């Protein structure tokens, strides 16, 4: 089993992989399906097969599955991942990144269908960045294939094909970070995080970033942590309106309750101070954190100490501070768009 190096040094949950020995194509992009228990999948897999992805990773729940053997025989290009216990959204995506072999992977849910985007080859081609031409102009040719950004998000619609507000924008309200959702308007619109984890990821850059923090169990704060780290470290999440997907069932609801998930997010994204070319978490931030955490002194100090150690380890990866990230959306939010 492959392992994914993360900035948090956590381990992926043990799992079993079934099938997936065949490869349909060599387009540079594979599909990842996050399975919703109880939904029929045969028609979805048939559509995925027609699209021509290199292969498919289907991340299952830990509940017993009685159709895996039959589906594996019918769709030999699908690798079914069966974790030994229930895992959160971020770990599902991290786990899939362990198994994917293509440079790009498109995360979808089993209650979705691809409405627009063309073949898998066309999807990948839209994200190619002509690095060779860019480097030649700078006098340093590089023949590696590069892609435009770490994560590209599609237009998301409901079952009636109505466009949903799915692009997230951070804003500061009473010294706290919150997000608002906006409808997509134009190619290149930024999104703080991929709604529900849905998007096309550059596998190498995703792994180098550390993937999702699997210790954050609240989905909203896990997505916030991932998105802030993407932008803090100089990467980008943005819209490509050529890709459209639709939900076939009810939309997921987000839990914004702070709890422990917010504390970890805060210490590793909002609290660090950026100076010239590095970041650090100053000691003076601890008293404020202790007061707001409502935890005992020693527990709060241990959490603060571990986060400070993590920031110090990665300090040269910062390109902005939290204010620099939220500033990317300031004009947009002021104009009320």
Describe the 3D structure.
The protein has 337 residues and is of the alpha/beta class. The protein has twelve helices and 15 strands. The chain folds into two domains: 15-247, Spore Coat Polysaccharide Biosynthesis Protein SpsA, Chain A (Alpha-Beta Complex), CATH 3.90.550.10; 259-334, no CATH class. A hairpin with a 2-residue loop joins β10 and β11 (176-182). The longest helix has 17 residues, at 297-313. Mean pLDDT is 85; it is low at 1-9 and 130-143.
Gist?
The protein has 337 residues and is of the alpha/beta class. It is built from twelve helices and 15 strands. Helix 2 links the parallel strand 3 (56-59) and strand 4 (78-83).
Question: How is the topology of this model organized?
Answer:
Elements: E1 15-19, E2 29-34, H1 42-51, E3 56-59, H2 68-74, E4 78-83, H3 89-99, E5 104-109, E6 112-116, H4 120-126, E7 128-129, H5 131-138, E8 146-147, E9 151-157, E10 167-173, E11 176-182, E12 199-202, H6 203-209, H7 219-232, E13 237-247, H8 259-270, E14 273-275, E15 278-280, H9 285-293, H10 297-313, H11 322-326, H12 330-334
Parallel strand pairs: 2-3, 2-5, 3-4, 9-13
Antiparallel strand pairs: 1-4, 5-12, 6-13, 7-8, 9-12, 10-11, 14-15
Helix pairs in contact: 7-8, 9-10
């Amino acid at each position: 089993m492959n392992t994914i190096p993360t900035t948090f040094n956590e381990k992926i949950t043990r799992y079993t992989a079934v099938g997936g020995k065949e490869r349909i194509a060599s387009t540079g992009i594979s599909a990842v399906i996050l399975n919703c228990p109880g939904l029929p999948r045969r028609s979805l897999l048939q559509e995925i097969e027609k699209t021509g992805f290199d292969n498919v990773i289907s991340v299952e729940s830990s509940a017993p599955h009685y159709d895996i053997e039959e589906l594996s025989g019918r769709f030999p290009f699908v690798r079914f991942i069966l974790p030994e216990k229930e895992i959160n959204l971020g770990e599902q995506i991290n786990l899939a990144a362990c198994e994917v072999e293509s440079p790009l992977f498109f995360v979808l849910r089993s209650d979705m269908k691809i409405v627009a985007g063309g073949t898998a080859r066309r999807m990948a081609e839209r994200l190619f960045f002509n690095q060779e031409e860019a480097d030649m102009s700078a006098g340093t040719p590089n023949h590696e294939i590069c892609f435009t950004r770490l994560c590209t998000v599609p237009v998301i619609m409901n079952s009636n094909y109505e466009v949903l507000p799915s692009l997230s924008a951070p804003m500061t309200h009473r010294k706290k970070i919150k997000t608002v959702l906006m409808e997509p308007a134009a190619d290149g619109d930024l999104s703080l995080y991929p709604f529900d984890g849905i998007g096309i990821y550059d596998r190498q850059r995703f792994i180098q970033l550390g993937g999702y923090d699997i210790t954050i169990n609240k989905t909203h704060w896990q997505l916030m942590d991932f998105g802030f780290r993407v932008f803090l470290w100089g990467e980008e999440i943005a819209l490509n309106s050529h890709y459209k997907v639709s939900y076939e069932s009810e939309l997921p609801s987000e839990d914004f309750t702070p709890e422990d998930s917010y504390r970890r997010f805060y210490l590793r994204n909002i609290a660090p101070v950026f100076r010239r070319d590095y970041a650090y978490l100053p000691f003076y931030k601890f008293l404020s954190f202790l007061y707001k955490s409502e935890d005992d002194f020693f527990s709060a100090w241990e959490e603060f100490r571990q986060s400070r150690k993590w920031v110090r380890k990665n300090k040269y990866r910062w390109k902005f501070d939290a204010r620099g990230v939220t500033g990317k959306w300031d004009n947009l939010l002021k104009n009320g768009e």
